[in-house]
């Protein structure tokens, strides 16, 4: 009887394997964990994710499924852990602590080789950095990332004019919400340019009035990356976000320089200037941040030792004795495994 | 239970024996120290022009790998790529691609082809959950990946050698066959008129 069940299981496994070869379901994901130590012993630098002071803390486990059948495809990406729940997602129904855990959930249809329509809940098209730790070079994130949108639910159409130019236009919900309380309220677009091999630039715009906002918010964003040589890569992100009726916003720019010394070891520096626009007569506040990270790769595992120094125009940080301070510095070590 | 355990041991033993016996394809080094797959094939009864036409038809057919030919004069030079998939049982995902150069040379009664300049481009998942090239400039497969990545690099080499062998076998087989290379066309669906039909 047992022998029979073993053979049955083996046959079923083989059958599913054969089917998978025909139309494979892609399963991928990542796991990340980190340790952070702020030299003033305060959880000072308040960007996303690497937030816990003197603690070996969790990032998230992220699981993504993708399937393509002919011209249709879907992506479903679930995340569990602080990074993938309350640090990057709103609650599922907005009434309790439930979360749908969803980072991406969309379906796409390629009408032609050049034109694709996508609908659902998607990672934002704005900005350089992303929620998944495998998509970022530095482990701690930029102010531009933290203050910008994380996800945009909506429907968008992308048309590739050539291999060098494409355009996306779409209608979207408010930032980072599964459902829009004031109707589909945002319009957005992305012009993608690839003038030479290795250089891609994205010109992005997203505008609309969010539920409860004082005015219409418009974000203009430039994200570009250039692989200069086999070893050297440059990146730039610049953005301006303004809300009408004195609703504030921000302006900022971040420059990324990375050098791969070997296939297993590289160093990268991020320099960022970020300015919060004052509201109600308050003056602007800005911060200058430098982050030096190393990436040490061993198979699917990447270790990211990192030092970061932030200098602000106002005393937005704390010293050891809890007095206000204009600067903060920290060390962190993260381990990210991609599968 | 004993029978089950014995059967499993037998299967594992047999599969390891077969695995040892199976010859893994390997790439060679050329005189510049680059990986190469090189082969000269004799087809006495075919002229150079006939061989060229056959090769052209093959690379136009959907069954052939997509090769972007830069020149198709006396020496054909083209660029191609193969996807390296990481597979564990029923799970699979692309971990990168290997880009290569293909050279083809035809003479009366024979042709030769070689694949070289293998460069690995790792993939990373983008913000929408799709796997995309992490860089535009590849790492030559000859490069020493260091101790930390040696195992993974060895698997890329192994897959590349296997895929190149498959490419070569298929190409040679097609060149040898006398039948026309089928380019699929839309099949006409037969129409049956049922209106006003007596039954």
From TrEMBL, chain A:
<feature type="signal peptide">
    <location>
        <begin position="1"/>
        <end position="20"/>
    </location>
</feature>
<dbReference type="InterPro" id="IPR011486">
    <property type="entry name" value="BBP2"/>
</dbReference>
<protein>
    <submittedName>
        <fullName>Outer membrane beta-barrel protein</fullName>
    </submittedName>
</protein>
<keyword id="KW-0732">Signal</keyword>
<dbReference type="Pfam" id="PF07642">
    <property type="entry name" value="BBP2"/>
</dbReference>
<dbReference type="InterPro" id="IPR023614">
    <property type="entry name" value="Porin_dom_sf"/>
</dbReference>
């Amino acid at each position: 009887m047992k022998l029979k069940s073993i053979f049955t299981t083996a046959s079923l496994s083989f059958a599913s394997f054969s089917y998978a070869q025909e139309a494979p379901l892609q399963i991928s994901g990542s796991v990340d964990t980190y340790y952070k130590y702020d030299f003033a012993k305060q959880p000072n630098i308040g960007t996303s994710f690497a937030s816990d002071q003197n603690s070996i803390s969790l990032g998230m486990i992220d699981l993504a499924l993708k399937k393509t059948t002919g011209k249709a495809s879907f992506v479903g990406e679930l995340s569990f852990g602080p990074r993938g729940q309350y640090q990057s997602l709103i609650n599922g129904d907005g009434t309790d602590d439930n979360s749908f855990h969803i980072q991406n959930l969309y379906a796409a249809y390629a009408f032609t080789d050049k034109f694709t329509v996508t609908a659902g809940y998607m990672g934002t098209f704005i900005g350089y950095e992303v929620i998944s730790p495998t998509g970022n070079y530095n482990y701690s994130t930029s102010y531009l990332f933290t203050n910008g949108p994380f996800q945009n639910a909506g429907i968008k159409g992308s048309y590739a004019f050539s291999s060098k130019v494409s355009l996306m236009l779409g209608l979207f919900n408010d930032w980072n919400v599964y459902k829009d309380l004031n109707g589909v309220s945002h319009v957005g677009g992305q012009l993608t340019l690839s003038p030479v091999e290795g250089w891609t630039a994205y010109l992005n715009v997203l505008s609309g009035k969010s539920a409860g906002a004082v005015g219409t918010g418009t974000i203009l964003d430039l994200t570009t990356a250039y692989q200069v040589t086999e070893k050297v890569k440059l990146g730039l992100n610049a953005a301006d976000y303004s809300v009408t009726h004195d609703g504030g916003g921000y302006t900022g720019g971040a420059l990324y320089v990375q050098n791969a010394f070997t296939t297993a070891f590289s160093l990268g520096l991020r320099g960022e200037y970020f300015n919060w626009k004052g509201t109600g007569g308050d003056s602007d506040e800005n911060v200058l941040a430098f982050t030096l990270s190393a990436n040490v790769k061993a198979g699917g595992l990447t270790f990211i030792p990192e030092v970061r120094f932030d200098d602000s125009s106002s005393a937005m940080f704390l010293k050891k004795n809890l007095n206000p301070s204009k600067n903060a510095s920290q060390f962190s070590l993260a381990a990210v495994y991609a599968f | 239970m004993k029978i089950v355990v014995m059967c499993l041991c037998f299967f594992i033993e047999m599969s390891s024996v077969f695995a040892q016996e199976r010859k893994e394809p390997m790439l060679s080094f050329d005189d510049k120290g680059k990986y190469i797959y090189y082969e000269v094939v004799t087809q006495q009864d075919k002229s150079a022009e006939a061989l060229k036409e056959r090769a052209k038809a093959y690379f136009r057919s959907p069954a052939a790998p997509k090769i972007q030919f830069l020149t198709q004069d006396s020496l054909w030079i083209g660029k191609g790529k193969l996807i390296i998939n990481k597979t564990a049982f029923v799970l699979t995902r692309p971990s990168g691609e290997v880009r290569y150069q293909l050279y083809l040379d035809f003479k009366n009664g024979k042709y030769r082809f070689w694949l070289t300049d293998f460069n690995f481009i790792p993939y990373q998942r983008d913000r929408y959950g799709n796997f995309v090239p992490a860089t535009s400039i590849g790492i030559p497969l000859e490069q020493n990946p260091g101790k930390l990545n040696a195992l993974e690099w060895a698997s890329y080499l192994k897959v590349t050698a296997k895929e190149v062998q498959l490419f070569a076998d298929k190409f040679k087989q097609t060149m040898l066959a006398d039948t026309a290379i089928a380019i699929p066309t839309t099949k006409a669906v037969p129409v049956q008129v049922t209106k006003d039909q007596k039954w």
